[in-house]
Amino acid sequence: MDNKIDKADKRASAGIASVAAMANIPYVTNHTFSLGVGVGNYRDANALATGAQYQITESAIIRVSASWNTEDRGVVGGGVSYGW
């Protein structure tokens, strides 16, 4: 039972590291297209993320990102933003 708990804890830590990496991708403003890389760590887990941002119009942006962590798991995310 302890082994299952330890494995779940490692996967959870790796997932948190992945989200931290994705959240820390810097993007360049005032450009149509931007690429970035972020890193994350939580407890003994590490992750590397990359992302892209595309300004569709003056008021709309789309963003996608993906990360890979030390538990050999991937995380993906994306979003759209519109301002007025």
UniProtKB/TrEMBL annotation:
Gene3D superfamilies: GSPII I/J protein-like. Residues 30-84 form the Trimeric autotransporter adhesin YadA-like C-terminal membrane anchor domain. InterPro entries: Pilin-like (IPR045584), YadA_C (IPR005594). Keywords: Cell outer membrane, Membrane, Signal, Transmembrane, Transmembrane beta strand. The keyword Membrane applies. It is found in: Cell outer membrane; Cell surface. One of its GO terms (cellular component) is cell surface. Signal peptide: none annotated. The keyword Transmembrane applies. This is Adhesin YadA. It comes from Proteus penneri.
